[in-house]
Amino acid sequence: MGQTTENQIREIEAAGFTIEPRRVVSETISGSIAAAQRRGFVRLTDKLETGDILVVTKLDRLGRNAMDVRATVDRLAALGVRVHCLALGGADLTSAAGKMTMQVIAAVAEFERDLLVERTRAGLARAKADGKSLGRPGALTHDQREDVIRQLDDGASVSALAREYATSRQTILRARNAAAT
Question: Could you state, in order of their start, the residue ranges of all structural domains in the chain?
Answer without folding.
Answer: 6-127, 142-180
